[in-house]
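Notes, p. 3: input format for complexes.
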Amino acid sequence: MFTVTAYAAPSATEPLVRTTVDRREVGPHDVLIEIKYAGICHSDIHTVRGEWGETPFPLTPGHEIAGVVTRVGAEVTKHAVGDRVGVGCMVDSCRECVNCLAGQEQYCLNGMTGTYAAVGRDGTVTQGGYSTHIVVTEDFVVRIPDGLALEVAAPLLCAGITTYSPLHHWGAGPGKQVAVVGLGGLGHMAVKLAHAMGAEVTVLSQTLNKQEDGLRLGADHYYATGDQETFKKLANTFDLIINTVSARIDVDAYLSLLALNGSLVNVGAPAEPLPVNVFSLFSGRRSFAGSSIGGIRETQEMLDFCADRGIGSEIEVIPADKINDAYERVLASDVRYRFVIDIATLS
Ligand SMILES: [Zn+2]
Ligand SMILES: [Zn+2]
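Output follows (347 residues plus zinc ion):
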């Protein structure tokens, strides 16, 4: 093992502090990545505050990792020293189950290994990207194309793939009406990606405060959900609604906006169950669904798509000593649209 500088939460109630974490030695199939940028995802905050169940402390979060390969194991074939690479929300899976074999490692039947707060295949707790280096098996490392700056690519590893995968799966494209609920870290990526795929895109946000941004990012329409007229006007309109909001929503009201065979897909994760009236699904043969990140192959496809279309995340780069302030600003929705830590400020 070796030790690297990191930021970690000592407990659920204390701020993150500068510290060190242990990394395993680079094995035959591992790559060592010098991390350049790490995005701050809302999940990081939920996890370090113990809001999603028991968290192993101390914990270094971060699953939007962009950096450069500085060493590779003897049997590595996919990456070389100097390659620009990324790591997202998972660092391993069983690789044997039907879902893994189908390239859907995020749905591994034996449980994929999260980038932080999970028990790795080597028995140790995984520690994430708010650190100078990480060691990851080559199969869970993706290539960041030259056309993408590392700092705008970092948030694509979670926010990008989490929205790309359902847009792709549910067929967002020309002739399709896509609505995005919430214009935050996930929502702004959903708007950019759906627009680039050729869909007609509508943002549904509580207020019209970010309307100018939404239209600039690629939305064709923007409506306030605080206005009840919106639900009357847009009834039976959308083929696909991507709900990025992690708070409680009126599911039946949003289902009423779906056209025949439309799907309401959740990528935000509210803490409590959401009630749904089945009659809302009968009319128009509607679906109420969920989606979780994306497989490794699809993550690479998403990065290549973004490089090809010139799509990155809208970011605010911060030094490491501003992580705790950034958390408060994320909770206050005061970020447009993703904080990215400059890891050079950590070492
Ligand atoms: Zn995330
Ligand atoms: Zn599996």
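The mean pLDDT is 97.
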